[in-house]
Write a structure and sequence with these properties.
With about 90 residues, the protein is mainly alpha-helical. It has five helices and no strands. About 10% of the residues are buried.
Length: about 90
């Protein structure tokens, strides 16, 4: 197999990024939510894609059943620290 030229590489990258938009929440994020002790919310949050999850405000969490203030804070902190590289 011959290597792809630069234009083909760019096209493949752009196509793959478009394909991952609107995909369900990644397994990485779900596993970190569960590791933070917030597994009871993972199922509802899986309706979001990664970008939607990462752009949520704390005030949005109650829409997905996260109403406990401490849980909101843990989710917010993990969102900001653990997933920074996904933004």
């Amino acid at each position: 197999m011959r290597p792809l030229d630069l234009a083909s590489q760019f096209f493949c990258l752009a196509a793959s990024e478009r394909a991952f938009q609107n995909m369900p929440l990644s397994a990485y994020i779900v596993s970190n939510i569960q590791a933070a002790g917030l597994e009871q919310y993972a199922r509802k949050l899986q309706a979001l894609d990664d970008q939607q999850f990462l752009s949520m405000l704390m005030s949005d969490y109650s829409t997905y059943g996260v109403v406990d203030v401490e849980d909101k804070q843990r989710l917010f902190r993990s969102d900001r620290s653990d997933f920074q590289f996904l933004r």
